[in-house]
What we know:
Elements: H1 2-28, H2 34-39, H3 43-46, E1 52-54, E2 60-62, E3 74-78, H4 100-108, E4 112-116, H5 122-130, E5 138-144, H6 145-156, E6 182-184, H7 196-210, E7 214-218, E8 233-237, H8 248-269, E9 273-278, H9 281-285, H10 300-303, E10 309-311, H11 314-322, H12 338-355
Parallel strand pairs: 2-4, 3-4, 3-5, 5-9, 9-10
Antiparallel strand pairs: 1-6, 7-8
Helix pairs in contact: 1-7, 4-12, 5-8, 6-8
Amino acid sequence: xxxxxxxxxxxxxxxxxxxxxxxLSFYLQPFTGDLTRIGGxxxxxxxxxxxxxxxxxxxxxYAQRGQDVVGSDYVVYGDSFSYWCSDHGSASALPACFQxxxxxxxxxxxxxxxxxxxxxxLEEFIQRIKRSAEKPKFVIYxxxxxxxxxxxxxVAEGEKCVKRTPLGIDQLAFNQTSESLMSVGRxxxxxxxxxxxxSAYLKQLMVSLRKPRVLKETLTADPVLFSNSHNEALLYHxxxxxxxxxxxxxxxxxxxxxxxxAAKIQQALGLPTFFLIAPDKSSVYGQWFKHEEKKVASxxxxxxxxxxxxxxxxxxxxxxxxxxxxxxxxxxxxxxxWRGGELAANALVEAIEKRQ
Length: 356
């Protein structure tokens, strides 16, 4: 009798809980986006449904602690936009890298080395390049927009602002590679079943009730901007709202930071610097927010500086979205989809060709 009572009180509720979580995991689908993972939103609603395309070679190596520049055509001082490769297919599928560096290598044949700027000071970055027996051809400063102002202000701190004509670049021989595009679909089934999927979803859902880290805005009906099933709404990071705090004085200091960075690279290494600021997701899609008061404007036009090699990424991304190109940014993520990576690579190639 005691055993039967134990079964009824413990075993049945536990079994029901396990079955509920199992069913929930099938509905939620495995997390592949940073916004769904931290925001308590489902991949079932916000995961991309059109395939992404990319290359097996990401086009850049990722510098490990203490690694010097060896055999690299260019060096990036960047963040996750230059430091991330998707692997969203099934376990048996090849990863497809659709960050900009993969498309840049496809178009130019150039191989890069990326240092994450949160892990290396500017001085350490320069020393790594100095120790290289074979000097790279140029440097890229890359940051996502929402962190660009404080990062560039830090570069400018204690420095005298300099203004000079941006350094040109030696003639490069671009050699388009012959690697074929690979298609990758989003993993939708629980393969393998992971209890962390429903538990993480429930945890983030509870957290988001207090102060959501991920914001959701309703979009106008035309054009369709994403391939996910819930494409009438946009997910974006709460930190995108940092843009609303900045003033013209912040923009001035950020410009100073770019000039100081380019001058230090030129003086220490004799190399030109190209500046790639990845627009925030809300900057590109803000004009399609249904509620006017929720729109978040980009500050990138305010810091574009003719005294440095500033690459305009905002214009081509907005233009592509306006023409109906979907998934320029992944609907479940803060990063670009394959079309965004390709557009960024195109813009950089054009900027380099103008400076040769």
